[in-house]
Amino acid sequence: MLRIAHDATYIHSLREGHRFPMLKYELIPAQLLHEGLVSSANFFEPELAKIADILLVHDKDYVQSLLDLTLDARMVRRIGFPLSKELVERELCITEGTIQTSIFALEYGVAFNTAGGTHHAGRHFGEGFCLLNDQAVAAAYLIDRKLAQRILIIDLDVHQGNGTAHIFEKQQQVFTFSMHGEKNFPFIKETSDLDVPLDDGIQDDEYLQLLDRHLALVFDRARPDFVFYQAGVDVLATDKLGKLKLSEEGCRQRDERVFQICRSRNIPVQVSMGGGYSVQIKDIVNAHVNTYKTAIQVFDL
Fold first, then answer.
1. Domain limits of the chain?
2. Does the CA dihedral 69-241-290-259 come out positive or negative?
3. Which residue, 256, 153, 135, 159, is CA-closest to 204?
4. Known catalytic residue: 120?
5. How far is residue 181's CA from residue 161's CA, in Å, rounded to a whole number?
6. Which of the residues 8, 120, 149, 164 has the least number of beta carbons within 10 Å of its own beta carbon?
């Protein structure tokens, strides 16, 4: 059974209060239901993550400043969102959704969070619309509970997973792999266990060849028993921030390669959706929905 974390409560609150670009998080579940890919029974509403779990990867003082709404103005600007109670609660909700879908993935092979992929948040900082790093927290949770021993984080968002690399730079049980635009945000990169920087304008064939080569390498090096996949669709040619030139089909084949190698090696995978900034919302939603379709096909769900 495909399990999907989704909670619209905070999305509606944030859209009304701050006019954030949250529309895709409503449209993805609606489109999945419209196409008959899932039913309402596939969705669940996560609660707020426990602070003890957040502190497995994030600095105590930083987390307390978030909770107290006392972050300094420079950090708030670095994050890019006005700081509010609703925003912090949404991040806690997203993070718990990723923790719970990682547990479901252990049972069903794959599970999704309709949000998440907040990979710019490091140990003691937020950045790029990311306050807490949902997949990093969930990875540490699995290790702490002895539910996984070796984890691979595959980050194929157009932006480097700098926060994830920062958090796990000295953690031998977590292997971080980021394939991203070399000249894109963040402009000061962290060092992942494996980084594959991409030239602007790269198209499907070259991208997929690079991915094939490096996926096999990271699985052999990391020897994971669990995978987290950050599946941002800002690699699309239509994306206004991405600078790459992948087609919708190229993006789908990217997802297929990740899911196929996980399925062939019997390794569960949790998926968070990451970025997507195409001018037309339909391009974002269709690409994200393709990720779900592909997982359903590969894992025979």
1. 3-298
2. negative
3. 256
4. yes
5. 11
6. 149
Residue (of 152, 118, 128, 109) closest to 264 by Cα position: 109
Q: 186 Cβ partners below 8 Å, 6+ apart?
A: 120, 127, 128, 159, 160, 162
Task: Indicate the angle between helix axes 134-144 and 85-108, nearest 10 degrees.
Answer: 50
Cβ-proximal residues to 289 (8 Å cutoff; 6+ apart), any chain? 28, 31, 32, 35, 37
Task: Count CA atoms closer than 13 A to 301's CA, side-chain side.
Answer: 26
Specify which residues 29 forms β-bridges with: none
Determine the 3-state secondary structure of 99 from DSSP.
helix
In the chain (301 residues long), the average pLDDT of successive 10-residue segments reads 83 47 85 97 97 98 98 96 93 97 98 97 97 98 98 98 97 97 95 98 98 97 98 97 97 98 98 94 96 98 92
Among 6, 58, 119, 120, the active-site one is 120
Q: What is the DSSP string of 138-190?
A: HHHHHHHTTS-SSEEEEE-SSS--HHHHHHTTT-TTEEEEEEEETTSS-SS--
Helix (H, G, I), strand (E, B), or coil: what is residue 34? helix
- Which H or E run contains 255? helix 248-264
Identify the CATH assignment for 3-298 out of 3.40.50.300, 3.50.50.60, 3.40.50.1820, 3.40.800.20: 3.40.800.20
Could you tell me how many residues make up the chain? 301
pLDDT of residue 21: 53
State the Cα–Cα distance between residues 150 and 174, nearest whole angstrom: 6
Handedness of CA 28, 34, 38, 43 (dihedral sign): positive
Alpha-carbon span 172 to 72, nearest angstrom: 33
H and E: helices and strands count for the chain = 11, 8
Q: What is the pLDDT of residue 10?
A: 55
Q: What local confidence, expressed as pLDDT, does residue 7 receive? A: 79
